[in-house]
Amino acid sequence: LRVRILLILLGCTSAPEGLQRPAGVALCYSPTGDQQTSAFFDVFLKADYAARPAALQALEGAAMALPSEEEVALVNGLGHLWRIAEPAPQDPDSFLAAALTAKAEVQRAFDLCPSDYRIPAWLGPILVNMGRQLNDQATIDQGLAVLQVGIDHYPAFVQFSKLLIYADSDGADFQKALAAVESYPCPHTDPACVNTPHAVHNAEGAALFLGDVYDKAGRRDDALAIYRAAQQSKDYASWPFRPLLEARMAGSPAEYIWRSTSQCSVCHQR
Ligand code: HEC
Fold first, then answer.
1. Is residue 82 within 8 Å of 48, Cβ to Cβ?
2. Which of 31, 74, 126, 263 could hold 109 in an S-S bridge, CB 3.0 to 4.6 Å?
3. 201-223 per-position pLDDT tens digit
4. Ligand 1 centre from 138 Cα, in Å?
Protein backbone atom coordinates (compact mmCIF):
# COMPACT_ATOMS: atom_id res chain seq x y z
CA LEU A 1 0.00 0.00 0.00
CA ARG A 2 2.76 2.40 0.94
CA VAL A 3 4.36 1.63 -2.40
CA ARG A 4 1.10 2.49 -4.12
CA ILE A 5 1.02 5.95 -2.62
CA LEU A 6 4.68 6.47 -3.45
CA LEU A 7 3.92 5.63 -7.03
CA ILE A 8 1.04 8.04 -7.03
CA LEU A 9 3.22 10.87 -5.81
CA LEU A 10 6.07 10.02 -8.12
CA GLY A 11 3.57 9.86 -10.92
CA CYS A 12 2.79 13.46 -10.09
CA THR A 13 6.30 14.47 -11.00
CA SER A 14 5.71 14.09 -14.71
CA ALA A 15 2.67 15.18 -16.65
CA PRO A 16 2.35 12.82 -19.60
CA GLU A 17 0.54 13.80 -22.73
CA GLY A 18 -3.10 12.89 -22.92
CA LEU A 19 -4.13 13.32 -19.30
CA GLN A 20 -7.65 12.04 -19.00
CA ARG A 21 -10.54 12.28 -16.58
CA PRO A 22 -12.94 9.36 -16.05
CA ALA A 23 -15.71 8.86 -18.61
CA GLY A 24 -18.66 11.12 -17.84
CA VAL A 25 -16.58 13.79 -16.11
CA ALA A 26 -16.46 17.00 -18.15
CA LEU A 27 -15.91 20.64 -17.25
CA CYS A 28 -17.90 23.42 -18.95
CA TYR A 29 -15.07 25.94 -19.17
CA SER A 30 -14.89 28.38 -22.07
CA PRO A 31 -12.42 30.92 -23.48
CA THR A 32 -14.56 33.69 -21.95
CA GLY A 33 -14.39 31.99 -18.57
CA ASP A 34 -10.62 31.56 -18.85
CA GLN A 35 -10.26 35.23 -19.69
CA GLN A 36 -12.51 36.43 -16.86
CA THR A 37 -10.68 34.36 -14.24
CA SER A 38 -7.08 34.84 -15.34
CA ALA A 39 -6.46 37.95 -13.20
CA PHE A 40 -7.68 36.07 -10.14
CA PHE A 41 -5.38 33.13 -10.88
CA ASP A 42 -2.40 35.51 -11.01
CA VAL A 43 -3.26 36.66 -7.50
CA PHE A 44 -4.04 33.14 -6.22
CA LEU A 45 -0.86 31.57 -7.58
CA LYS A 46 1.19 34.31 -5.94
CA ALA A 47 -0.82 34.04 -2.69
CA ASP A 48 -1.06 37.83 -2.92
CA TYR A 49 -3.38 38.54 0.03
CA ALA A 50 -3.18 42.31 -0.47
CA ALA A 51 -4.50 42.02 -4.02
CA ARG A 52 -7.15 39.47 -3.09
CA PRO A 53 -10.07 41.76 -2.11
CA ALA A 54 -9.99 43.56 -5.46
CA ALA A 55 -9.62 40.29 -7.36
CA LEU A 56 -12.63 38.83 -5.58
CA GLN A 57 -14.66 41.94 -6.26
CA ALA A 58 -13.83 41.68 -9.95
CA LEU A 59 -14.90 38.03 -9.96
CA GLU A 60 -18.20 38.92 -8.31
CA GLY A 61 -18.82 41.49 -11.04
CA ALA A 62 -17.98 38.97 -13.76
CA ALA A 63 -20.27 36.38 -12.18
CA MET A 64 -23.17 38.84 -12.29
CA ALA A 65 -22.43 39.88 -15.87
CA LEU A 66 -21.96 36.31 -17.15
CA PRO A 67 -24.45 34.21 -15.22
CA SER A 68 -24.15 31.13 -17.43
CA GLU A 69 -20.37 30.67 -17.19
CA GLU A 70 -19.52 27.69 -14.95
CA GLU A 71 -15.88 28.66 -14.63
CA VAL A 72 -16.66 32.17 -13.41
CA ALA A 73 -19.17 30.92 -10.83
CA LEU A 74 -16.79 28.21 -9.62
CA VAL A 75 -13.71 30.38 -9.37
CA ASN A 76 -15.73 33.11 -7.66
CA GLY A 77 -16.90 30.52 -5.12
CA LEU A 78 -13.44 29.01 -4.65
CA GLY A 79 -11.84 32.44 -4.43
CA HIS A 80 -14.12 33.13 -1.48
CA LEU A 81 -13.30 29.71 -0.07
CA TRP A 82 -9.63 30.71 -0.20
CA ARG A 83 -10.45 33.86 1.75
CA ILE A 84 -12.15 31.74 4.45
CA ALA A 85 -9.44 29.07 4.61
CA GLU A 86 -6.54 31.54 4.58
CA PRO A 87 -7.84 34.71 6.24
CA ALA A 88 -5.59 37.77 6.07
CA PRO A 89 -5.59 41.17 7.82
CA GLN A 90 -6.38 42.89 4.50
CA ASP A 91 -9.78 41.19 4.16
CA PRO A 92 -12.48 43.86 4.25
CA ASP A 93 -15.55 41.60 4.10
CA SER A 94 -17.05 39.51 6.85
CA PHE A 95 -16.12 35.87 7.20
CA LEU A 96 -19.78 34.89 7.12
CA ALA A 97 -20.50 36.82 3.93
CA ALA A 98 -17.53 35.14 2.26
CA ALA A 99 -18.72 31.72 3.45
CA LEU A 100 -22.20 32.30 2.04
CA THR A 101 -20.78 33.44 -1.30
CA ALA A 102 -18.51 30.39 -1.45
CA LYS A 103 -21.44 28.04 -0.84
CA ALA A 104 -23.85 29.77 -3.21
CA GLU A 105 -21.38 30.14 -6.08
CA VAL A 106 -19.91 26.63 -5.91
CA GLN A 107 -23.47 25.27 -5.81
CA ARG A 108 -24.42 27.44 -8.79
CA ALA A 109 -21.41 26.16 -10.73
CA PHE A 110 -22.57 22.57 -10.13
CA ASP A 111 -26.08 23.48 -11.31
CA LEU A 112 -24.58 25.03 -14.46
CA CYS A 113 -22.33 22.05 -15.11
CA PRO A 114 -23.56 18.82 -13.48
CA SER A 115 -20.86 16.82 -15.30
CA ASP A 116 -18.09 18.66 -13.47
CA TYR A 117 -17.85 16.00 -10.78
CA ARG A 118 -14.87 17.78 -9.21
CA ILE A 119 -17.32 20.22 -7.66
CA PRO A 120 -18.55 17.85 -4.90
CA ALA A 121 -14.95 17.85 -3.61
CA TRP A 122 -15.47 21.49 -2.64
CA LEU A 123 -19.23 21.66 -2.09
CA GLY A 124 -19.27 18.64 0.24
CA PRO A 125 -16.79 20.09 2.76
CA ILE A 126 -18.37 23.57 2.52
CA LEU A 127 -21.77 22.13 3.49
CA VAL A 128 -20.39 19.81 6.17
CA ASN A 129 -18.39 22.60 7.80
CA MET A 130 -21.33 24.95 7.67
CA GLY A 131 -23.60 22.30 9.15
CA ARG A 132 -21.13 21.61 11.94
CA GLN A 133 -20.85 25.33 12.75
CA LEU A 134 -24.63 25.69 12.89
CA ASN A 135 -25.21 22.33 14.56
CA ASP A 136 -27.46 21.48 11.66
CA GLN A 137 -27.43 17.76 10.89
CA ALA A 138 -29.50 18.13 7.71
CA THR A 139 -26.84 20.35 6.12
CA ILE A 140 -24.09 17.96 7.24
CA ASP A 141 -25.98 15.04 5.67
CA GLN A 142 -26.52 17.03 2.49
CA GLY A 143 -22.77 17.69 2.31
CA LEU A 144 -21.93 14.01 2.83
CA ALA A 145 -24.43 13.02 0.14
CA VAL A 146 -22.94 15.47 -2.37
CA LEU A 147 -19.47 14.22 -1.50
CA GLN A 148 -20.53 10.63 -2.18
CA VAL A 149 -21.89 11.59 -5.60
CA GLY A 150 -18.47 13.01 -6.42
CA ILE A 151 -16.62 9.97 -5.10
CA ASP A 152 -18.84 7.68 -7.17
CA HIS A 153 -18.05 9.57 -10.38
CA TYR A 154 -14.56 10.93 -9.80
CA PRO A 155 -12.77 9.19 -6.92
CA ALA A 156 -9.30 10.35 -8.00
CA PHE A 157 -10.16 13.91 -7.14
CA VAL A 158 -13.04 13.79 -4.70
CA GLN A 159 -11.92 11.11 -2.26
CA PHE A 160 -9.26 13.51 -1.03
CA SER A 161 -12.06 15.59 0.49
CA LYS A 162 -12.97 12.76 2.87
CA LEU A 163 -9.61 13.45 4.41
CA LEU A 164 -10.52 17.14 4.65
CA ILE A 165 -13.84 16.38 6.33
CA TYR A 166 -12.59 13.87 8.90
CA ALA A 167 -8.89 14.55 9.54
CA ASP A 168 -9.58 16.96 12.40
CA SER A 169 -12.00 14.55 14.11
CA ASP A 170 -11.20 11.79 16.58
CA GLY A 171 -12.23 8.20 17.04
CA ALA A 172 -14.34 6.52 14.38
CA ASP A 173 -14.54 9.67 12.27
CA PHE A 174 -10.76 10.04 12.15
CA GLN A 175 -10.57 6.41 10.99
CA LYS A 176 -12.62 7.49 7.97
CA ALA A 177 -9.91 10.02 7.07
CA LEU A 178 -7.27 7.31 7.46
CA ALA A 179 -9.25 4.85 5.34
CA ALA A 180 -9.63 7.50 2.63
CA VAL A 181 -5.86 7.99 2.60
CA GLU A 182 -5.12 4.26 2.52
CA SER A 183 -7.35 3.63 -0.47
CA TYR A 184 -6.60 6.89 -2.25
CA PRO A 185 -6.99 6.21 -5.97
CA CYS A 186 -4.96 8.69 -7.98
CA PRO A 187 -3.64 7.49 -11.33
CA HIS A 188 -0.93 9.76 -12.74
CA THR A 189 -2.82 9.83 -16.02
CA ASP A 190 -5.53 11.98 -14.41
CA PRO A 191 -5.13 15.78 -14.35
CA ALA A 192 -6.29 15.79 -10.72
CA CYS A 193 -3.25 13.75 -9.73
CA VAL A 194 -0.38 15.71 -11.23
CA ASN A 195 1.11 19.19 -10.96
CA THR A 196 -0.73 21.48 -13.38
CA PRO A 197 -0.53 25.19 -14.28
CA HIS A 198 -3.24 26.02 -11.71
CA ALA A 199 -2.22 23.46 -9.08
CA VAL A 200 1.50 23.95 -9.38
CA HIS A 201 2.57 21.90 -6.35
CA ASN A 202 -0.34 19.48 -6.06
CA ALA A 203 1.92 16.49 -5.42
CA GLU A 204 4.04 18.17 -2.76
CA GLY A 205 1.04 19.75 -1.02
CA ALA A 206 -0.92 16.50 -1.04
CA ALA A 207 2.02 14.80 0.67
CA LEU A 208 1.63 17.13 3.66
CA PHE A 209 -2.03 16.17 4.04
CA LEU A 210 -1.54 12.43 3.51
CA GLY A 211 1.56 12.31 5.68
CA ASP A 212 -0.07 14.31 8.47
CA VAL A 213 -2.97 11.86 8.61
CA TYR A 214 -0.48 9.01 9.07
CA ASP A 215 1.39 11.03 11.65
CA LYS A 216 -1.80 11.71 13.60
CA ALA A 217 -2.60 7.98 13.42
CA GLY A 218 0.78 7.27 15.04
CA ARG A 219 2.18 5.76 11.84
CA ARG A 220 5.41 7.74 11.67
CA ASP A 221 7.13 5.46 9.13
CA ASP A 222 4.26 5.75 6.69
CA ALA A 223 4.26 9.52 7.14
CA LEU A 224 8.00 9.69 6.49
CA ALA A 225 7.66 7.56 3.35
CA ILE A 226 5.12 10.02 1.96
CA TYR A 227 7.21 13.08 2.81
CA ARG A 228 10.29 11.47 1.26
CA ALA A 229 8.45 10.60 -1.93
CA ALA A 230 7.40 14.25 -2.29
CA GLN A 231 11.05 15.26 -2.26
CA GLN A 232 11.46 13.29 -5.48
CA SER A 233 9.06 15.58 -7.33
CA LYS A 234 10.73 17.55 -10.09
CA ASP A 235 8.99 20.64 -8.69
CA TYR A 236 10.17 20.11 -5.10
CA ALA A 237 13.08 22.53 -5.42
CA SER A 238 10.79 25.42 -6.40
CA TRP A 239 8.14 24.69 -3.74
CA PRO A 240 7.79 27.58 -1.27
CA PHE A 241 6.66 25.22 1.52
CA ARG A 242 9.70 22.94 1.66
CA PRO A 243 10.41 24.07 5.26
CA LEU A 244 7.05 22.68 6.42
CA LEU A 245 7.89 19.25 5.06
CA GLU A 246 11.48 19.29 6.25
CA ALA A 247 10.45 20.28 9.79
CA ARG A 248 8.13 17.29 9.83
CA MET A 249 10.88 14.97 8.66
CA ALA A 250 13.16 16.32 11.40
CA GLY A 251 10.47 15.53 13.96
CA SER A 252 9.71 19.14 14.96
CA PRO A 253 6.17 19.70 16.24
CA ALA A 254 4.01 21.03 13.41
CA GLU A 255 0.47 22.31 13.15
CA TYR A 256 -1.54 19.83 11.10
CA ILE A 257 -1.78 21.16 7.59
CA TRP A 258 -5.59 21.05 7.53
CA ARG A 259 -5.60 23.58 10.39
CA SER A 260 -3.02 25.91 8.88
CA THR A 261 -3.59 29.14 7.01
CA SER A 262 -1.55 27.77 4.10
CA GLN A 263 -3.98 24.95 3.45
CA CYS A 264 -4.68 26.06 -0.14
CA SER A 265 -1.32 27.67 -0.95
CA VAL A 266 0.71 24.52 -0.26
CA CYS A 267 -0.70 23.11 -3.52
CA HIS A 268 -1.41 26.29 -5.45
CA GLN A 269 1.32 28.84 -4.72
CA ARG A 270 4.05 29.06 -7.34
C1 HEC B 1 -3.72 18.71 -2.18
C2 HEC B 1 -3.58 19.83 -3.08
C3 HEC B 1 -4.67 20.89 -3.09
C4 HEC B 1 -5.13 21.63 -2.04
C5 HEC B 1 -4.73 21.54 -0.59
C6 HEC B 1 -6.08 22.57 -2.60
N7 HEC B 1 -6.19 22.37 -3.93
FE8 HEC B 1 -7.26 23.49 -5.25
N9 HEC B 1 -6.91 22.17 -6.70
C10 HEC B 1 -6.04 21.10 -6.62
C11 HEC B 1 -6.05 20.39 -7.88
C12 HEC B 1 -5.26 19.12 -8.19
C13 HEC B 1 -6.93 21.06 -8.72
C14 HEC B 1 -7.24 20.77 -10.18
C15 HEC B 1 -8.35 19.81 -10.30
C16 HEC B 1 -8.57 19.43 -11.74
O17 HEC B 1 -8.97 20.25 -12.52
O18 HEC B 1 -8.36 18.28 -12.03
C19 HEC B 1 -7.45 22.19 -7.96
C20 HEC B 1 -8.33 23.12 -8.45
C21 HEC B 1 -8.62 24.32 -7.84
C22 HEC B 1 -9.25 25.45 -8.47
C23 HEC B 1 -9.75 25.50 -9.89
C24 HEC B 1 -8.61 25.58 -10.84
C25 HEC B 1 -9.05 25.63 -12.27
O26 HEC B 1 -8.18 25.48 -13.12
O27 HEC B 1 -10.21 25.84 -12.58
C28 HEC B 1 -9.34 26.42 -7.52
C29 HEC B 1 -9.87 27.83 -7.72
C30 HEC B 1 -8.82 25.87 -6.29
N31 HEC B 1 -8.37 24.60 -6.52
C32 HEC B 1 -8.83 26.53 -5.08
C33 HEC B 1 -8.43 25.92 -3.87
C34 HEC B 1 -8.68 26.48 -2.57
C35 HEC B 1 -9.41 27.76 -2.30
C36 HEC B 1 -8.11 25.63 -1.66
C37 HEC B 1 -8.11 25.72 -0.16
C38 HEC B 1 -9.37 25.77 0.49
C39 HEC B 1 -7.51 24.54 -2.42
N40 HEC B 1 -7.73 24.75 -3.74
C41 HEC B 1 -6.78 23.51 -1.85
C42 HEC B 1 -5.25 20.77 -5.54
C43 HEC B 1 -5.38 21.34 -4.28
1. no
2. 74
3. 999 999 999 999 999 999 999 99
4. 27
